[in-house]
Amino acid sequence: MDRSPDHYIDPVEIERELAAIWATIDGQEKGAGGTVTRASMSNVMMFCDGEAQAEDAALRIPRLVQHHPARVLVLALIPDQPSEDVQAWVTAHCRRTADGTQLCAEHIELRFGAHSAERAASVVRSLLIADLPSALWWMSPRPPALAGAVFDAFAPMAKQIIYDSVGWSDPPSAVLAMTRWAKSHPAVIFNLAWRRLKPWRRILAQSLAPTLVPGALRTIDRIELHHGPHALPVAWLLLGWLASRLGWRPQQGSAATGARISWQFELGRGDGRGPIQITVHRDDDGPALIHRMRIAWAGDGAEPAGSAEYRHEGHHIRHYPSDPALLPSSIPAPEQQPEQMVAAQLAHRAGDTLFTNAIAISEAMARVMKTEGAAAPSP
Fold first, then answer.
1. Where in the sequence is the domain holding 218, given as residue range(s)?
2. Residue in 294, 296, 302 with CA at minimum distance from that of residue 319
3. How far is CA 295 from CA 14, 89, 288, 319, in A?
4. I want to staple 296 with a disulfide (CB 3.0 to 4.6 A). Which of 85, 90, 174, 307 is the partner?
């Protein structure tokens, strides 16, 4: 899409320009003996911080609408925008279906400065297809709830807020802000990190199942986790899920250094066992993923103590049990592009109870970290 000033249009001309685009596509298809279908299952707003992110969004749209046809509105906040005007471009993304039909989805891009967010929101409001659900895909690395007026301008129009916690610079503050925002707003929130954690959740549930390792889950006493740069929020969410499923409650947290933090959990109802100690380390290099994890359990009178190692190796997560009677196992962990995860999430507009419970514990973990007076850990 040509973003040169010569191709700017006034926002009031957007619908007229779209009509002209559709007329051209329809004429071309009819001339070739084909048909064109204008497809929209929802309105998707993609918020971008700066020029580079807006360009990245444009590259992702064709794959997004291939999986989930939509009217896509790219909301590009340009810090050095010279005026308070809102600038616009429009185009369409088309693909040929198996029966020869040309399937097209609309792409509208709005560029605006920080002081023009309300004006841009007014334009967006007029462009949303009224009988379709609306979602806000927050592509910015800034946590949505900490973005102030810019987020507040667009969030009320969305039934679903989709964001990615990877790279958050201050995870405790961001986690607290997002969970507090969700409690006071009707929109469903969803973190792409949750979808990335699905293979981890599956292998932990399978490898520690009571039928396979009796007593392991109920007597876990130590966890050590290593993650790559910028992936602390992912590790944080996985621990929140595990704690929510096992009934743990965080008692205290501390950041000994920028690269290591720890929590102490206790069972919610208490059974006389000691605390569960969790330590999280940031590796200096590697992908923004959980690299490896070790879980140890104390056992009891009936079941022995033991441990299990987990490693993210290539496109698999592998499990190495300490018990020689058990065989190692693995589960696929394919790399997923953000637009694929977003398209999948758009089809599930209701809240996810497991995710909701996980972020509730994540919030409690952030709260005890704050009350301990720890410095913000590096992500």
1. 196-371
2. 294
3. 56, 52, 21, 11
4. 307
**Both tokens of residue 155?**
């969030």
Please check whether residues 253 and 339 belong to one and the same domain: yes
Same domain as 203, residue 85: no
Beta bridge partners of 335: none
Q: Which two tokens stand for residue 92?
A: 């369409």
* Domain contains 41: yes
User: Residue-wise pLDDT tens for the chain (379 aa)?
Assistant: 445 544 677 788 888 888 887 787 667 656 665 655 666 789 999 999 998 999 999 899 988 988 888 899 999 999 877 677 888 988 877 776 665 566 777 889 999 998 899 999 999 999 999 999 999 999 999 999 999 999 999 999 999 999 999 989 888 899 999 999 998 999 999 999 999 999 999 999 999 999 999 999 999 999 999 999 999 999 999 999 999 999 999 999 988 666 899 999 998 766 667 899 999 999 999 999 999 999 999 988 788 999 999 999 999 999 999 999 999 999 999 988 999 999 999 988 788 899 999 999 999 999 998 544 445 666 7
